[in-house]
Prior knowledge:
Elements: H1 5-30, E1 40-43, H2 45-55, E2 66-69, H3 84-117
Helix pairs in contact: 1-3
Amino acid sequence: MSVTPSQFDLLSKLVDVTTLRHKVLAQNVANVNTPGYRKLSVSFDETLAAQLDHNGDKRIYALKPELVEDNSSPDRIDGNNVDIDNEMMRLNKNTLLNNTFLQIISTKAAMMRRAVGGQ
């Protein structure tokens, strides 16, 4: 599997999104007991998939993640809708994705360095 510069751009964008998502999830966890707090999520994956299906990777650079209020969980009596178990699961998944993207970048960059160095 080779990685072209545009694939590096895509991986870089995905790392940026997972970093933003981590901050948002951490904010949700920090506000688990704040009355009236509405959890947030990062909308990007569906937009990226649609862009790749229609235009390939030509306009990935212009894609921006969006913060949206997530109403998928029911409200508690205090108006807060953060489910700590769900947020921790999402946080762990996001951490694994981020580490995977970084590992792919690191491995491919090392392969390119070895190829350029003639090893």
